[in-house]
Amino acid sequence: MHIFYSKAALIAYLKTIKTANSTIGFVPTMGALHQGHLALMQRSLKENNDTVVSIFVNPTQFNNPEDLAKYPRTLEEDVKKMRTLSDKIILYAPSVDDIYEGNTVSQTFDFDGLENQMEGKFRPGHFNGVGTIVKRLFEIVTPTNAYFGEKDFQQLQIVKKLVEKTHLPVNIVGCPIFREENQLAMSSRNERLTADERKEAAIIYKILTEAKDFFQNHSPQETVEFVENSFKDNQEFELEYFVIADESTLLSIDQKENDKNYRAFIAVFVNSIRLIDTISLN
Ligand SMILES: Nc1ncnc2c1ncn2[C@@H]1O[C@H](COP(=O)(O)OP(=O)(O)OP(=O)(O)O)[C@@H](O)[C@H]1O
Ligand SMILES: CC(C)(CO)[C@@H](O)C(=O)[O-]
Ligand code: BAL
User: Fold this and answer.
1) Which residues are noted in the entry as (R)-pantoate-binding (predicted)?
2) Regarding the domain with residue range 188-276, which homologous superfamily does it belong to in the CATH classification?
């Protein structure tokens, strides 16, 4: 496996392997790899000549310093996991300085309102940080295809908008959510849960699927109340938000309309650990 810690070395290497018709697949991550990340890599390996994976815990997208400090960093184990997939993966694991060159701040973006709901509302500045790092990584890696998970559905829509607005020549590929055996969405933050919490966190997806059924015969507002009440019965989980939104605008809805795609989004605290999940309602 090729591992690069500096953009200069990565860019020089990519120049030696790129040909007129070759494709580069790119999987940006923050590390602490799990099966969800590995599935994105497998897809990239299958669909491209070369695959670059980045591991970088991006400080500018964290609004909560404790969340940043406690974010799991497991580079050695991550490398081992990637090796089980393919020795051909090109890993870019930069320092903060290599990316930000002494100026660790976000650019400000206008994502046509996609940034104002849910994760953007509850993590102020988050999507400016995501936009800044994703744009920078795209400029360094120059991917043909870039792979993002639907667990971060709002992020996926925002990255598509970023590409549309900046005219970067990259195709964004959304990939399905990988779940643990108990259906909890895989997440690097799951590593911070105790064994019991991890087991009990299955309730998040259970309530989401119940909400999906409930929504078929009830209004959006009634469905929101149904979910809020379900969490009141589960005191160890603190619901931050449950939103039913139009999948394309991400705006929450008051009424159902025909021919629209709707999706439910949820963020829940287990202790101080924040987990998100989402489900299509169609
Ligand atoms: N369970 C999953 N299934 C599919 N893709 C996923 C899953 N979890 C994360 N991803 C995707 O992997 C990429 C890197 O995500 P990231 O490194 O933030 O991992 P994460 O598990 O989402 O971490 P956390 O949930 O703690 O933020 C993103 O595109 C994300 O959507
Ligand atoms: C896309 C990303 C790697 C940018 O830091 C991050 O937001 C993530 O892991 O989803
Ligand atoms: N998975 C999105 C990255 C974050 O939580 O900051």
Assistant:
1) 61, 155
2) Pantoate-beta-alanine ligase, C-terminal domain (3.30.1300.10)
Kindly state the DSSP code that residue 252 receives in the 8-state scheme.
Answer: B
Indicate the CATH number for domain 2-175. Answer: 3.40.50.620
Q: What share of the chain is helix, strand, coil (3-state, %, to 5)?
A: 45, 20, 35
> Do the domains 188-276 and 2-175 match in fold?
no
**240 has pLDDT over 90:** yes
Domain segments of the chain as ranges: 2-175, 188-276
Length in residues, the chain? 282
pLDDT tens string 145-192: 999 999 999 999 999 999 999 999 999 999 999 999 999 999 999 999
Residue 13's identity, in one-letter code, is Y
The binding-site residues of ligand 1, defined as CB within 6 angstroms of any ligand atom, are: 29-30, 36-37, 40, 148-149, 151-152, 175, 177-178, 185-189
Residue ID of nearest Cα to ligand 2 atom 4: 130
Tokens of 257: 């309309």
Q: How far is the CA of 266 from the centre of ligand 3 (A)?
A: 14
Tell me, what's the pLDDT at 281? 97
The yes-or-no answer on residue 37 being catalytic is yes
What tokens does 232 get?
């009141």
Q: What is the mean pLDDT of the chain?
A: 97
- The finding on whether 58 has its CB within 6 A of some atom of ligand 2 is yes
